[in-house]
Design goal:
This protein is of the alpha+beta class. Among the domains are: 132 residues, Orthogonal Bundle (Arc Repressor Mutant, subunit A), CATH 1.10.10.10; 33 residues; 137 residues, TolB, N-terminal domain (Rossmann fold). The protein contains 28 helices and 15 strands. Strands 4-3-2-1-8-9 form a 6-stranded antiparallel sheet, with helices on one face. Strands 10, 11, 12, 13, 14 and 15 form a 6-stranded mixed sheet that branches. Helix 16 packs antiparallel against helix 17, helix 17 packs antiparallel against helix 18 and helix 21 runs antiparallel to helix 22. The N and C termini lie far apart (56 Å).
Length: 653
């Protein structure tokens, strides 16, 4: 029986040799990943169910869907993107996968002479021997099977014409390769896209236990609408500040710079829920749509679906079939699990240690109610991310980040079209695993799924800064601010990006702009203090750190920053007192060793600084992520030990 090979784009798949080649060069794949790819390619354009893949690739028994998801992820990494920027393997949520070559790159199968040599022949050799079999994708244009060789053989052109054609094709190929070889940037929202803010609903229930619905319902609607490409939806973090009592929705809409706002009220009485909503145009206050829903509380899903669909109609959105499916998508069918998830997000959004603890409790309960609830795992990952960060220091990074990674990976095993989970996994890979390439891939995937996800843009900007790609980081940060201009952390983050890029004047301006929005925002005082410190303005830096310490209720990070400023300003006794205090606290709770190393550095004790940096590396302190660009450690760059640390972090000096 004749052997087969398949070609698509720059790839050749040779089943008999269990090999995949790109432009004639082998691509490394595990045996199982190769088997998965072969099954998908053989059914190009058609849906292959998860069950079919499992039975054929793991015939002896398959119990962990994560195995399949991991192999799909490995294939996506190996294949990269098609020339149009999309991926070769499409996920069909809850059903399976579809191999989708570009419309101009249909899969072509060849039957080869069984007596052909084992080594992969050239394309020309295959042309002479093959019996062409086209595997046409179910979607897109059928492949063009005629070749330049066919044309030349029919026309029998002159030698000059042949050379001219060959030269033209070569130039065209070089041009296309230079166009397509660059990895596409994450999708950007078009300039004409409509924008909307779903403001907090007024909770009319007398029970405090129902307060979460006032923000929970808008959060669910934001998640549903956020997947639509024709609309920019302000994230939950940006609308939380607007109290539903006495709110002027049009004023809020102007502050949020949106075209329309959705306002409403929610009331639960025993097993019934009543939701009243209005969609208003910000420019003139015109009511675009309004309705009241009176349903059983267990039918909360139906209420959310109806509101989302009616909003899209009122805004005259022309939704694709895929977007209509996204709008109707339910992440769980379990009403109890959904309510518990909404409570988890409500407490997570408080961004306090107590709130984070409470959110973990509710996310875990939601998972217990529905173990297949991908969103609940994603929420759990976000909670552990906060617990393990240096700003919260509730758990040691090894404990918190391992839990965060496991939760994010489980979310993606259940639904790898979940942008939030890709964002969470990308951030874990960035600040804990120090997997730079893996982090970028996760952020790209998140932004492909939801281009207006400001958290993904925010954390992707962190990655770009860590890599020293400052201009790109500024651009990503500004994109996030264009979507959510009143978000305080996003405004503060842009100041931090300027600091890492040594653009201190711009950082000062951005800090002042942020403090105009909220004079009591501790993080903005911190960034302003850091900028002053790097400018040599130590009294001003100390004043800002003291203000941040007061506003934060005594957060440890500000005590450490004060210690650094004291050391740099010559107040050695104060700096040493700060060190002793941090040492004492570190016996009771986790404190990043990077903070202690920085004070020793500013005291001129480099040996001690490197001792604590080594400890920071062992504990995987998130602050080391930015070692390559952080001005804090400029004084160590000439020491050979610094180059060694960057090498361990797989960063270039």
């Amino acid at each position: 029986m004749a052997a087969k090979l398949y070609e698509f784009g720059p790839f050749t798949l040779r089943p008999s040799e269990h090999r995949l080649l790109r432009d004639g060069r082998p691509v490394s794949l595990s045996p199982k990943a190769f088997d998965v790819l072969l099954l998908l390619v053989e059914s190009a354009g058609g849906l292959v169910s998860k069950d079919d893949l499992a039975k054929k690739v793991w015939p002896s028994g398959f119990s962990e869907e994560a195995n399949l998801t991991a192999n799909i992820a490995a294939l996506r990494k190996a294949l990269g993107h098609r020339p149009d920027g999309q991926e070769y393997i499409e996920t069909v949520p809850r059903l399976g996968y579809r191999f989708t070559p570009w419309s101009n790159q249909a899969v072509t199968g060849f039957e080869l002479d069984p007596n052909a040599p084992a080594a992969l022949p050239t394309v020309e050799a295959v042309e002479a021997k093959r019996n062409r079999v086209n595997v046409t994708p179910h979607r897109g244009r059928p492949p063009v099977t005629s070749t330049l060789g066919d044309f030349l053989s029919r026309r029998k052109p002159s030698r000059k014409l042949t050379l001219a054609l060959v030269a033209f094709v070569a130039l065209l190929a070089v041009g296309l390769w230079s166009q397509f070889r660059r990895r596409p940037e994450p999708s950007q929202v078009s300039a004409g896209t409509r924008s909307i803010a779903v403001l907090p609903f007024q909770s009319l229930s007398s029970s405090p236990d129902q307060e979460y619905l006032g923000l929970g319902l808008p959060d669910a609607l934001i998640t549903q609408l956020g997947g639509l490409r024709q609309i920019v939806v302000r994230p939950t973090g940006s609308i939380r500040q607007y109290s539903p009592k006495g709110i002027d929705p049009l004023a809020a809409g102007r502050e949020l710079k949106v075209d329309s706002v959705l306002v409403g009220s929610v009331q639960r009485s025993e097993d019934r829920i009543r939701v009243t909503v209005r969609l208003l145009r910000v420019a003139d206050g015109a009511q675009l749509w309004a309705d009241t829903f009176d349903e059983k509380f267990t039918d909360l899903f139906a209420v959310e679906d109806s509101i989302s669909q009616q909003v899209s109609k009122a805004l005259a959105l022309q939704l694709s079939g895929q977007e209509q499916q996204q709008l109707a998508k339910r992440y769980t069918q379990n009403s109890d699990a959904h309510q518990l998830y909404l409570k988890g997000r409500y407490f997570w959004g408080k961004r306090t240690p107590a709130g984070v603890d409470e959110s973990i409790h509710y996310f875990q309960q939601a998972i217990a109610a529905d173990p297949q609830y991908a969103l609940a795992y994603s929420g759990l990952a976000d909670s552990y991310l906060l617990q393990g960060s240096s700003g919260y220091s509730q758990l040691r990074p090894q404990e918190a980040m391992q839990k965060a990674m496991a939760a994010a990976e489980r979310a993606l095993a259940l639904d790898d079209t979940l942008a939030e989970a890709h964002t969470s996994l990308g951030y874990v890979k960035l600040i804990f695993a120090w997997d730079w390439q893996g982090a970028e891939q996760e952020f790209h995937r998140a932004l492909e799924l939801n281009p207006s996800d400001t958290t993904a843009l925010h954390w992707y900007s962190h990655y770009l800064t860590a890599m020293g790609r400052h201009q790109e980081s500024v651009a990503a940060s500004k994109r996030a601010l264009a979507i959510n201009p009143v978000d305080l952390p996003l405004n503060e983050h842009l100041a931090w990006v300027y600091i890492m890029a040594r653009q201190y004047d711009l950082a000062v301006d951005q800090c002042r702009k942020t403090l105009e929005m909220d004079p009591d925002f501790a993080l903005a005082h911190r960034r302003l203090g850091e900028t002053y410190e790097y400018q040599g303005k130590y009294p001003e830096a100390i004043a800002e750190f003291q203000k941040a310490l007061e506003l934060s209720g005594g957060a440890i990070v500000y005590k450490a920053l004060l210690g650094q400023a004291y050391a740099l300003s010559g107040r050695r006794e104060d700096a040493e007192r700060s060190l002793r205090e941090l040492m004492q606290l570190s016996r009771e709770r986790y404190i990043s060793s990077t903070l202690i190393a920085a004070i020793y550095l500013d005291l001129g004790e480099h040996d001690q600084a490197f001792h604590w940096l080594d400890k920071a590396y062992e504990e995987r302190s998130d602050l080391l992520t930015y070692a390559k660009v952080d001005p804090t450690f400029d004084g160590l760059h000439s020491d050979p030990r610094w180059a060694g640390l960057l090498e361990r972090l797989k960063l270039e000096q």
